[in-house]
Amino acid sequence: MTAIRKFTRGPHTVFHADCNDVLTSEIRDGSVDLIFADPPYNIGKRFVDFVDKWPTDSDYADWCKVWLEACIAKLAPTGSMYIMTSTQCMPYLDLYLRDRISVVSRIVWHYDSSGVQAKTKYGSMYEPILFCAKDPGNYTFNADDIRVEAPTGAKRKLIDYRKPVPATYSTTKVPGNTWFFPRVRFRMPEYENHPTQKPEVLLERIIAASSNPGDMILDPFAGTFTTCAVAQRLERQSIGIEREVDFVKIGLRRLGICDELDGERLRPLDKPYNRRNANGGRIPEPTDQPRLF
Ligand SMILES: C[S@@+](CC[C@H](N)C(=O)[O-])C[C@H]1O[C@@H](n2cnc3c(N)ncnc32)[C@H](O)[C@@H]1O
Asked: Residue 128 sits in which domain range?
C-alpha cells in the first residue's frame, strides 16, 4: 500500500492515493449515499505518467471488479452508484454488476464533436453511464429537481381532456436516459488541465437526482474533482480520491481546501477569464460579448 495523504476542510475531503487503498482503510462500510465512478476507460489515454491500457479487456474488467466490490460495500442501504467507462468496456461491467446490485437505468451521455471526424467508421459521440441502486425498492430519486422542458411542438398550450377537469399538459418532464451535454472545452470557465474532465451539468443532474443536501458523495477517480465541486455547491458532503498529485492540486484549489501544496501555490490556469484587474474584477474577453448564434 502506498502512502495516503488526506486533506479535509469542513464536509469535504480529498485523498491523494490509490482508491483501492482508501476504500479499504479509510471509509466506513455503508456510509456513502452516492458514488460517481469515472475510472480510466482502457483506451490508451495518458494521465500524467499513466497510460490507461490493460493487456486485455478482461484484465481491465478484473481490475474494475476490485474497486466496484469495495464501492458496493461503502454504499448505504439506500445508496446509489453511477459508473462510467468506454462503450467497448461497459458490457463487462454491466454483466458483472447486474448480479451484484440493481441496474436501474442505462444512460447515454451524447455530445457533438467539432474535432477530428472519423472517416472509416461512425465516430464515437457518446459515453455510457450505469445508474445502480443497492435496494431497487428504496433509493433517492428527486424527479422534481431535474425536470427539463418538454417541447410539444405546439404554439399554444395543449389541453389534456382526459382529466376530470381538463388541464394543460405539463411543460416539463423528467429526463429520459439519453442526455445531451457539451463536453468541457478549453474556453469554458470550468475547464481544467485534464484529459477527460466531465462537465458540471452532468454531475449536477446526477447529484440533484440521487442525493439530498447533507448526503455523502464519493468519487474514487476524482480527476479534476468535478463531482466534489458540484457536491459542495449543492450543499452535500464529499470525498474525492485521486492518484496523480497534479490533479489533487486542482481539487484542493477547486474546493477551497488549501491554496498551497508542498510549497507550491495552487493557482487557477492562466486563462483570460481567470485574469483579474487591480481591483480584483474579471478582465472580460472580447468573446464575452453575447453571441447572436
Ligand atoms: C476518467 S478520469 C476522471 C475525470 C473526472 N471525472 C473529472 O471530471 O475530472 C480518471 C481519473 O482517475 C485517476 N486514477 C486512475 N487510477 C486511479 C486509482 N487507482 N486510484 C485513484 N485515482 C486513479 C486518474 O489519474 C484520472 O484522473
From this structure: 5-140+177-288
